[in-house]
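Sharing in case it's useful to others searching the archive later.

Someone asked me privately for the predicted structure of Delta-aminolevulinic acid dehydratase, so I'm posting the question and my answer publicly. Question first, with the sequence:
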Amino acid sequence: MPSKPSSGFKLDLPARPRRLRRNASVRALVEETVLRPADFIAPLFVIDGKGAPEPIASMPGVARFNVADLVRECRALWKLGVPAVALFPKIDARLKDPSGSIALDEDALVLRAVRAVKKALPGLVVMTDIALDPYTSHGHDGLLSDDGREVLNDATVEVLAKMAVLHARAGVDFVAPSDMMDGRIAAIRKALDAEGFDQTAIMAYSSKFASAYYGPFRDAVGSAKAAGTSLLDKRTYQLNPANRREAIAEAIIDEGEGADILMVKPAGPYLDIIRDVREVTRKPLAAYQVSGEYAQLHAAAKLGWLDLERTSMESVLAIKRAGADMILTYFAKTLAVRLKA
Ligand code: PBG
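And my answer, the predicted structure tokens:
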């Protein structure tokens, strides 16, 4: 029963926006942003050996998988309509050295993982990170100068280009340089083309900030450096969170160097940057909802302070609304299950 107006008071309004919110059908008609499983890229962690999945304490629901379990997880995602995965290896600490030489090992864990996934699911888009942090003993994304005080740019790019070729040879659809060295997109494109991999695409982590939201990820891949500070200072290569113009400039540079897809990372705290980059490029744009964004919703939900189902969906929807065409998110599977239902 509609409640009776208590008085004759009536506003004379030219617009009553609530008319379009009256019921679910009207709301569906005017809905502007729609999430679908095909918007998601699922980041997955892989470990060597045959052991059981290793849960990551700071990322509830996320585990590191051995290669066989990784393939199973990829198949489940594929069945749910998730078209892409991004693979991150966790390397045994004993295999790491200051120059991350294991990154150029032809039998590297991530390459074995790529081959296994592409063999089982040729249609699934497989991406890998191009950066040295999972492989270096110090956890930086590049090589250090002799005095250990500087992350070397050009020497790092030389290694990254070789790494990209190895990944292309293993069958990745996209290489995703996440290192933030200058000039790496052009160098990687050139190296790929020279080896005949002109169809291997580049997703550039183009506007990647030196963010404190990567903490749980560094636990997951063990790049938080064993000794000393737990959060490595990557401010000499990743963007200053205070800088908006510089973030746009980085995206433009990477587009000019040949990136096929650009990226903003993190996503939720940087929605303005997603919108800014969306407006300066016609390239597809990805956004990475990072480990800390995932962890904070889980933590609040665990305390009973937030509804995880609703906030996870809303947080990802907001990233798409801001202008991202695709979202790397640890919620990919749970959201895909619900969007498919
Ligand atoms: C490494 C890399 C990082 C992430 C993706 N690739 C961490 C870093 O730069 O230290 C973070 C992802 C996340 O937090 O979910 N180059």
